[in-house]
Amino acid sequence: MKVGILGSGDVGQALGRGFAARGHEVMIGSRNPKGEGLAKWLRAVKGKATTGSFEEAAKHGEVVVLATRGAAVEEVLKGVGHARFDGKVVIDVTNPLADDPNLVPFVGMTDSLGERIQRALPRARVVKAFNTVPNTQMVDPKFSGGTPDLMICGNDAAAKKAVAGIVKEFGWPGALDLGGIEGARWLEASVSLWVLVGMHIGRWDHAFKVVHG
Predict the structure, then answer these.
(1) Span 120-151, pLDDT tens digits
(2) What is the helix (H) or strand (E) element at residue 51, kind and residue range?
(3) Which residues 6+ apart lie within 8 Å of 87 measured at CB?
(4) Are 62 and 2 in contact (CB under 8 A)?
(5) CATH for 2-201?
(6) Helix axis angle, 113-120 relative to 184-201, nearest 10°?
(7) How far apart are the first and last CA of the chain?
(8) Secondary structure element (H or E) that encloses residue 115, with its range
(9) Which residues of 2-37 are buried (b: 16+ CB within 10 A; e: fewer)?
(10) Model-level pTM?
(11) Could you report the per-residue pLDDT of 171-207, keeping only the tens digit for each?
(12) Among 14, 59, 132, 137, which residue has the least CB neighbours within 10 Å?
């Protein structure tokens, strides 16, 4: 599978390593695709991997991963051209957290970045996934209390099935499907709680798990 990843930070690099290590052809898109950070990543990654512009990565990917900063993603999509995503599975890993000491998502509680992305890309099949866990645990997760199912949401059942397959390929037990893309409101809001918990326990490798009797 060809995978285009828009965003070259820790999240994009972590997911890129995961896809490449499992035999997929990865291109990371960046504003600075020839920078030393990505050059170092290319030297270390195992598998087929390249770098390019945001537009080149979007064109490359049968599946496209959005891993930019939340505040930048809409500008990036506009720059690439919305038609470039038509028909594709788009995995939205972004979170709408600005530099806000109160950790309040900048979209409020009646919308979400996932919904904004789906509206901007009406012919893409957007699935919110991986935004509730740290980049260090996105691939081959290891939690002392047991690895949870990864929470996802989106409007397209086939796209969610494809993403659930990727989730399992990356070492998660499975995906917990929370319904339509409007569920992104709560997945994104939970990240504020995730950050608050991390501040109080002094570590950043945790995740939330659904348990029942």
Answers:
(1) 999 999 999 999 999 999 999 999 999 999 99
(2) strand 49-52
(3) 123, 124, 125
(4) yes
(5) 3.40.50.720
(6) 140
(7) 39
(8) helix 113-120
(9) bbbbbbbeebbbbbbbbbbbbebbbbbbbeebeeee
(10) 0.96
(11) 999 999 999 999 999 999 999 899 999 999 999 999 9
(12) 59
- Alpha-carbon gap, residue 8 to 168, rounded angstroms: 23
Residue 152, beta-bridge partner list: 177
Tokens coding 173: 């037990």
b/e map 83-98, b = 16+ CB within 10 Å: ebbeebbbbbbbbbbe
Per this entry, what is the length of the chain? Answer: 213
What residues does each domain of the chain span?
2-201
Structure tokens at 100: 């806000």
The residue assigned the tokens 């052809």 is 25
Burial (CB count <10 Å: 0-12, 13-18, 19+), residue 51: buried
